Queue: 4 jobs
Job 1
Amino acid sequence: MSILQRNPVYVVGIGMHRYQFPTDTPYVQLGLAAARQALADARLNWPQVSLAVVGSAAIGMAAGRVMLRHLGSTGFEVMQVENASASGSTAFRTACLQVAAGEHDVALALGVDKFGDGRRAAGKDGLQALSPTAHIPLVKFALLTRRLMQDHGLTEADLARVAVKNHGNASLNPFAQFRKPRTLEQVLASPRIAGALTGMMCTPRGEGAAAAIVVNAAGLERLGLDRGRAVRVMSSVSSSERLADDCPPGVPPIVELVRQSSAAALREAGLQPDALDLIELHDAFSIEELVYAEAIGACAPGDAAGALARGEWAIGGRCAVNASGGLIGMGHPLGPTGIGQVAEIVRQLRGEAIGRQQPGARTGLAHMIGLGTMAVAHVLQKE
Amino acid sequence: MSPTEPPRLLLGHCQACGTWNFPAISWGCRSCGAGSESLLAKPLPGPAILRNAVTVHAELAPGLPVPCVVGEIELAPGVIEEALLQVADESELKLGTAVEPLHLGEAGGTSPWRFVPVKELAA
């Protein structure tokens, strides 16, 4: 039995700073807006939080302390985690495991990032790649798109339908970077980036912040928090890609990674894929939603395009995939993204996602990918 | 190698487990983790095979002119690497066929290597 099954952990507060195109706003302002909102949502005061885990890929050294001292120098423990696109998810996982272990009763997970300051380790390994695109995820996923279009008969219209759904969902989300619904024709006619991927099938660059406050059972009890709005973190899983030789024949390693990590998260939670009412996943490029949602079990094998076209993944469908708008519509500022997924699922499970509520939602999966090779998955449930 | 001999593309063959690695000089075997001393530099064991390719239209990498064609090339069993293809158009390529490395030196800009389709031998 996992530690989260033995020692329950709950999300009791969420906060967001809207994702947006790059501005001159200091990251501190973005992060504090999300943190203060999460504290107010939980009805907690800052001195009651004893741990802060900050997820950021591009701010720099000690972003947490520099930012959070403006809430008060209460002696809180603070750390920063960097895990590419999964930085926020990893910060959330770290916070959950710390409170489950009893090291702290109340922890803040906060993702914040500004675009443009990130530095990549991939180019510093002292090895010469054959192509300057070797570490650019967009090219990797454009190649995956072609392969899957060829092997599984996916069409450009199938890819575009992901973007149409997610831009539509984002238009209903006040925290989203894009707020305009798009038609199939608009998505297909937007500038081609690589292979079959057009601009509207890709996530934008941006900035923002997202926060979640987690507590253990002792914290929930001691602080007299509202159990009716608490959402339980049922499981937390993190892993990375294996070699193609170790994957089933014909299955790309990234798809096998999603299958295994989501299956582990559901197994740890004691659930089957059909229990999921919501999935927030890493749709930086539209092909990803089609293959990841299928790998998670949101449709029968080979039926991803069909399930999407039939509206099964729309808000109101069998399982709403990226009700927030996903990375394509809501945006992907790196550090905040994984915690933004958690915030969306918590809002939905509480029944507070005004204008984009998945009816009767009780269970959700937040699944994030970092550097196209690492996965972090959390199952959340309203008890 | 003589001063006039063009550079050859080499792979690292792990003496501990037999796995092929790219690049030849690396920090360890990607499969068994044996140290770099276990990797023996060898030429490609057979023809490189083009497995996939796309045209890149947007400027994604500094110094890489677009449009350009990027492929996934199987250099040895299990070693699939992204590489630039020297073709005028993606339509010149046929997936599953042999391609060969061409060393352009400094003229290659961001990468000295390009791959070109292997010309079919005249009957």
Job 2
Amino acid sequence: MTSDWKRPGTVLVEALGEQFWRVSVSGNFHRDVEGPARDALVAAVRKVTGRSGLLIDLRDIVRIDSWGEWELTYLVEVFVAASGRVAVVSDEHRPHLLRGLLELLREYGESVLYGFDEAAARAWLAEEHT
Amino acid sequence: MSAASDPPTAAARVSLGLAAARRWPETEALRRHETLLALRGERVAWLVADGVRELLANAATYGALTCEAAELVIDPAVAVVTLRIQGNEFDSVQAATSSANRWLHRFDRMLRSDGVSWSWRREQGMNVIEFRLTGLRPDRGGDA
């Protein structure tokens, strides 16, 4: 596991119906990923705008640092500033991995939901629109 | 209990060169360091290991090249983890991390929420950052 620490992770952006985006980040999402690949990861994250809700799936993320936490928080900021909602889903078996990100997300109060259950997260996102 | 399963009681020293400042294998080894784990458990081992990586990576980014002699001392007898970094750059690192992404602020919040106090001082030309784990709450299973 430690030998692949510089290999870039992936950012997958999908539409969830007509109202939401789903962004899945997996693998390495930290400042030490090789430069051009890191730029590509940032570009993929920053192009996600224009819908009322966002599901960020971090269940397959392996390494994240303060740089990666800040990039994801930028995305949250964009949606919350536009009166949107953001749900973050993580892996319950790795509780220490996202502590720094959680500290940042607390600042957004009830606009952000953090949990382990994707179905519950999607239901929460849809609440505003039923 | 056999001697092999007794928790470590002697202080452990970990040399953290500049190269290690931005390398995850060293961080991941530190998260599993038996003396650090024995102090209060996995959650704090992760917190300290990740904190050390961030401090050193920022020191490297903002020019504290002397952090190649950085050293971490884990002392179970007094439940203190001490990071020593040569040079005089910690002030600028602190300012940079605070303004750039507020990492130091939330690191501070995480430490305090775990019951860890920490301090920084200058001592014989070294930056000395001490994490005092004596008031630490135990791991709560599954708690993030």
Job 3
Amino acid sequence: MTMDLLDRYLHAVDRALLPMSRSRRSDIVQELRENLSAQVHDLQAQAGRALAADEVEAVLRGHGHPMTIAARYRDRGSARRLALGWELVGIELFAWYEVALAIGVGGTLFVTLIAALVIGAPITLRTLLPPLLLQLSAQTLVFITLNRYLRPQLRGDWRPADLPPISDALRVSRGRSLTEIALIVAFLSWWLGWIGPGLRGFANSRNSL
Amino acid sequence: MPREAALNTHLLDNLRMELRRGSLILAVLAELRSERYGYSLRKAMVEHGIAIDEGTLYPLLRRLESQGLLVSEWREESNRPKRFYRLSKHGRLILTQLLAEWRTITQALNPLLSQHERVK
């Protein structure tokens, strides 16, 4: 029971570390496992008995929420924190915010450029800036809201027993990946006019109204 | 006023954290003149009266290692693999310089603080 709780806790830390490489994550989790096990064994030796589940929970709560711990392993210095509004989004979500920004900015630029090429609009700063600003603001707002919602849980109002069981939920099934790829290809084909009127046809039909 | 009290507590917490941050690094570097793994280091620090929570200490060790101040290796102890840290050559040099800085600060601060205590 107690080791199950420790395993679930470490699994949650591993998942929270996710933007990191698998080898680095596994090294950190292995070290945490040894340190936490040593602490549990120490407490057992002092008590002269095996620890109850709630005592192991107290050790894990004292160690910190998995997301907070993972964020501390990612901490890359105060200058970066100040520059990118670390406080606004929260240290726990900051790495995900960065990943989402990179994907969001890349995606918005890609779609805007393709749309401009298809419609034949000139590619200028005026074309690119509005969708980028909109996307940045919307993404930041979502993360600020998430941070406000998660804060009480991360700052102590959480129970290790509520952590989800160990699962390989991050592995997306092959069927699901293929379906997603097929949908993206279908959308791009429509967008580029290979299927149906496409975006150019859509733009022309609007102009003729 | 509860809001004012909460703000004061928040301010005090922040200032305390800032004050502790530098001294904790100094303590960790000084403790790691002899080799230790994470949990044994924390126990040694607590025995010296320096409280530090594990969730802060273990990531700090990684950061100090990435800065070249510590070196580490996985080794077995009591049939369990553990990651042992010790001060690197560069870390030893930095620690000497930091200790000199620390002594200068405390020497300058002590008379000032005891003067404040007397006035109070």
Job 4
Amino acid sequence: MFSLLPVPLYALSVFLRPLLYAAFGLQAVYLAIRGFETGRMPIVGVHDTLSLLSASLVAFSFPLLKAVGRRRDFFVMLSLTAAMFSLFAFFSKPHAGPLPPVLKTYWFELHVVLSFFSYALFGLGAILGVCYLRAPGDSQGLLGAQYRSLLVGYGFFSLSMVFGGIWAYLAWGTYWVWTPKEIWTTLLWLFYGLYLHARLMGKWAGRPSAALGAAGFLVVLFTYLGVGLLMKSSHAF
Amino acid sequence: MLNKKNLFGFLFSLKTAFWLLCALIAVLLCGAVLMPLNEEYEGMGSAALFDWLGEARGSLTWWLWGAMALLAALTANTLFCSVESLIKKMERKKWLLVVSPQMMHAGFLFILLGHLASSLGGMKGYATAFEGSALRLPSGTVLKINSIKIDVDERGFIGDMRADVEFLKDGTALKAGQIAPNRPSFHEGYGVYLKDARTYPARSVLIEVSREPGAVWALVGAVLFSAGTVLLVALRMGQEA
């Protein structure tokens, strides 16, 4: 039940901002307890990773607060997204069994943690993009914050792919496996690569690239949840 | 008419990179949709890509050929754009900011080179082995499984597994070592992996032997790309702060 506590707090933080930080604190404590109980990092299965994604989303918003100012739409979207991920996490069964031997490696931990940090940053990029698109005239700071969020997210995501490749080479004898999960991951990487190039092109700078950066999160959601639920994946253990 | 100037203009253009990326995303999206619909794609992982492409039907492979053609064009574009950018901007004071994206581009090209090498010369094979049994590797070396250890917890889950192995040639031991999940042993370009273990009816292991000639190039590319990314992020964050 502890994992449910952040949900109403995140939802109510739409009206009372300090609740956002209280919910984040509770979720961080929950993840720490789960890590302590299972004797490993809480990064296995949908329950753990959605909780991590929700907490990361809020954690990475802290350095952006200066650029965001008092924009209510940003905090509404952030709170509701964190509440939604936390709610889905609550309804997902936590992974309880021992880890398969192939998952007992730092490469796996680095791969997963960096993936979800990048997903959180891509989520923030989407929220910032939507905020900018709602009021582009007076929001150059938002565009810069979206770029910073997506650039750091892209860096984390690239490193996550590198660590995943090293792990796959040590575990399966190849750094690349031909499954839909890998294709979608590559699509995601190329999509944000496209965003980084688009914002350097005159016609695509501003609103179009902000929209592109926001749309990327749909690819994130499908790569993370859609592929796992609908297709055979090299990431099912 | 496409003259030399137009051709170079096309190759140097960021716009070309943008549209090539769009086309590549569209083609890979087709592949991502098609793959789960056809079981024949499951054979892709067990052979080098070009061997599989030679055998598979065109209706399955068109998007892969398309992706390769686009990647070839993107490679040319990346090379030209990077060289042009370095020549034009090296005079600037903040040269690290000029170099870091080009390190990422170079990393990307090395990763593509790695994929190409593995797609041409990669191989993979599986065998079940028992304690004391021997397998002949494609290089002619014999792999002997000296002992198998499997730790099973009280609930019946395998907690750990490992096998002591020895590489032999003409009866002479060349190398001895232990393999376990995430801890392969390498010899003469081949990697020997422990994939699975069984305790019943007799202690046995599933061994994978693979050769991935592009792995080194991909690693070089990954290091370059990562270094370029970290450098670019650090410089950009510093600028914005």
